[in-house]
Structure formats: structure tokens, C-alpha cells
Design brief:
By secondary structure, the chain is mainly alpha-helical. Helix content is about 70%, strand content about 0%.
Length: about 80
């Protein structure tokens, strides 16, 4: 899910939030920006990996990397 999609959902449901709508929309925009930044950092970390630190960890490492790239693909 992209930042634009997140913001679209937030704006479509704008009137359903409680409290001060402007403040909540601003907070939601900050969350969407943080999501994008964290996603980018996760992708950079995953891309820099060149294999498991120890061969005995290869299976677990591969499972984690597969999950990471699946999540990254879902959030493009």
C-alpha cells in the first residue's frame, strides 16, 4: 500500500475521525510519511544483505528475507 493510497483512505474517511479533524488529518499524513520512510529503509536493508551471517542460519534467514520482500511488494 503506497503513501498515496493511505492518504486516500484517510481523506475518504475524514469525517469519521473523532476530535479535531485538521489535527487528525495532519497526524495521519505524518504517519503515512513515516510509513514511506520506514519502508524505504527496510528495502535498503534487505537489498544490502548478501546471505546469512552463518550457514546454520540460512533457512531462517531465507524465510525472513522472503517475508520481507513479500511485504515490500505489497506496499509498493
Amino acid at each position: 500500500m503506497t503513501t498515496d493510497r493511505i492518504l486516500e483512505i484517510i481523506q475518504r474517511n475524514y469525517d469519521k475521525f473523532t476530535g479535531t479533524n485538521e489535527a487528525e488529518l495532519h497526524a495521519a499524513e505524518e504517519i503515512a510519511a513515516l510509513f514511506t520512510e520506514l519502508r524505504d529503509l527496510l528495502e535498503q536493508l534487505a537489498d544490502i544483505q548478501n546471505g546469512p551471517p552463518l550457514i546454520q542460519d540460512e533457512k531462517e534467514w531465507r524465510e525472513i528475507m522472503d517475508k520481507t520482500y513479500a511485504l515490500l511488494k505489497e506496499t509498493e
